[in-house]
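Quick start: read one record
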Amino acid sequence: MMKAACSVFIAAILAAPILVADMNALKGTWSGNWTPKGGVPDSITLELKLDANGKLSGKFLTPVPMDFSKASFNSKTAMVLLEAGDPQSGKHYKVEGKVEGTEIKGTFENNGVTGEVRLIKWTYFGR
């Protein structure tokens, strides 16, 4: 019994850094790339914000600057969903991924073309 309890405790400790404890950890600038299936990696940068009520919002900075039309985060699964449409080109962009500490890994869709996305949160360490 003690051995099983220790195993569960150790597994919980190892899994803890994977989940985001609170939505405040999402705030900030995230960048990285997405790779369409069979294609060349392309850069992507986005900015996540929380309003006074704790609602997630933000915008894509690249590939095209545009506000999110949809932004959600499930703290139980650590899944984030971000969508936006470019009014100039009519293209639709969507990020669906799991937040693991300072990384978001998942899929990116650009007007029907999907691929893998990996974003890393910008951090600043003062001297």
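The radius of gyration is 17 Å.
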